[in-house]
User: What shape does this take?
Amino acid sequence: MKMLFTFFLLIFLVFLSPTEVKALSINFDFSGNRQVADSISFEDDISVTATAQSFWFGTWYNSLVTQSESGLGVKSGLLDSGQIDGLGADERLILTFSEDVIINKAWFTMVGWNDEFSLSVNGVLLIEADIPGNGQFDFTDLYAENRTGKIFAFSVTDWNDDYKVMGVEIESEPVPLPGAVWLFASGLIGFAGIRRKKIMA
Ligand SMILES: [Ca+2]
Ligand SMILES: [Ca+2]
Ligand SMILES: [Ca+2]
Assistant: This one.
């Protein structure tokens, strides 16, 4: 009886443990005052830096990130639109996070019927898809493992794609601290003890 009590007390402590770290969910809003820069950073509990590249003659070259009230885009040259587009050079917007994150959602702007996007995670293509009319795309149907990384690159699928990325919803990977792990282990040992006692009795 005492063991049963100890077991439940330990389990209770595991769930109450203030040292336990839960997965953080963060919405990044990329809208802002108009600017064009080499990189633009956003700080939260996790930080993210946006950079841009353009594909010319078989190679990706660094280019400029644009920011506006519609979010982030890419500018490849003086005459190029500030959106992520495939007219002329293919472009990609690269989001580099301060740690591994899982992408859940993205919000796109300047979306027309002919706009598709591609998203690569750590250099591996995750998806190519049509951008819904409401601009919101939910990635949670895809395996979380494939949606996890530090580097997310939004690009185009053909010449008439053009859009901006207004924001993303990401979550951090849950990391239990040693304190919680120890308590959980104690709980399991206690549980094993109870089972043994029952079998012996
Ligand atoms: Ca562009
Ligand atoms: Ca298209
Ligand atoms: Ca468009």
Summary: The first helix runs from residue 2 to 16.
